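Take the subject:
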Amino acid sequence: MITTVSPKGQVTIPEPLRSRYGFPPGTKVVWLEREGDLIPKPLLSVEQLRGRFKGGGLAASLLSERREDREHEDG
């Protein structure tokens, strides 16, 4: 897909890509530069992140992993 940079430096993200990669209207975009490429990423708000990390979080996951390691060491 091809888009054009406007005189104000604006670029329109084509609708199929907005839908696929999570760019609803009003989304703030962070631009990453990697090996000469520009990569747009949606900057998610706290509300959009809510519920994405269910299941106890990182600490619970690490503790569970450590328990499993100890069981293998003892067994």
Notes: The first helix runs from residue 15 to 21. The CA atoms of residues 35 and 41 lie 16 Å apart. Residues 15-74 form one domain.
